[in-house]
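task queued by scheduler; priority normal; single chain, no ligands, no partner chains; default sampling; output format set to structure tokens
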Amino acid sequence: MTSEFRLRYSSPGGAFLSLALVLFSFILLPLSLFALLNGVAGNMGTEGLFDMSPEQIQIILDEIWEYIRRLIRYSIPLLLIAIPLGLYRPGSYARIPFKFLFAIYSVIIIIGFTDGGIIELALSDMPIELGEIPLDDIAITLDITVFIYITILIGTAGAFLAFTEFASNRKDFVEKRIEIDEKRSGNEPAAEPEA
């Protein structure tokens, strides 16, 4: 029996597509959204549409940028997992470990990105007046642990869907593998009979 990890059963186009999708979703899209937010907030701050100075807006943008950097840093291993995930076809034994690892690591990214469900935004050196009370430092804490628990359950279920994907695509993969083997054996010269 031949190994399904062999490159002849792989799909280089699938690897490229998988890498491009993860690159866009986890790196290019967040960077683009931050660039848009940075441009819009910068223009609104200089035009006086916010009740904040440009320096105060920049402090908020710096805090958001730290979260974007953390997301990108956590996403680099996901890019590496995406290559073999797309390289091996659905229904192949070779795809199962990468699909499983991709789902589990996605959950780890969400936990790490949100510090376990607690997002803190510390805005220091921003004098704001609340009525007649001046505030110098503001700390906003967002507790999204319920959302994180739901995401963990969905991600864990996604890991086990690797086996469902395998079972539902196995027949098609075996047919494709037989077709590839027949083409390969048809191109090779037949062995000469031994004397």
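post-processing summary
- DSSP finds four helices and four strands in the chain.
- The first strand starts at residue 118 and ends at 123.
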